[in-house]
Fold this protein.
Amino acid sequence: MRKKILGFILLVASALLFALIPAKSVSAADDEVVFPIRDSSFLALTDASYPKFLAHTTNYFDTEPTDSYVPGLSVWKVSNAYKGNWFIPSVSTNNDYYTIGYADESYEVGPNLFLNNKQAIKIPVGEVTFKGLGMYHGIGFTSDLPWTMVYRSDYIATVQNSGPVALWQSPAYQTPTQWVDPGDSFTLNQVYFSYDSGLWFDIGANQWIPAYYLDSTLTRNR
């Protein structure tokens, strides 16, 4: 019990310390983009907060969703990335989850137009990656099986099209492997984006599908 109480105290202390740290600019690579995991809105700072934000003189941001529509799985080039505690007030009438709670990284995709890491996933351009989609977990601590690392996807995508959709061996329409039907759902293992071929997801062992043929909302794999 003492360990649990001590752990809770340390967790609260860490959270308070993090809240007092001003947002820091993280140089966005020229080859990074973000894609929303569902239909969203841009976030924008108030006219008073934005200059302070750029000058790194504030650690609290009066942030509101703008009157905008950002389609899920659309791709946006990141001009700047910022680490810091962003409180998003609950102002949405439809209770979109990204308008409440905290985000610890935000991405500027236009002048005072932001998406945060509760709305969107940041990925490199031209590289296959699983970061943001899931993580590797260790198993075997409570059994006689050898300890090993197993990947677990955090998201599920659903095929949306008027007919069957081909899967490809690589994210460039090279070598079709099989077909999937509208309404079929799959966990997402890897993601790839290039300016030539667009956004792709690996839903199997190198079974790639263009994001164009997926529902714009990714659901959590709980």
Summary: The first strand starts at residue 24 and ends at 26. The chain has two helices and 19 strands. The helical segments are 2-19, 49-54.
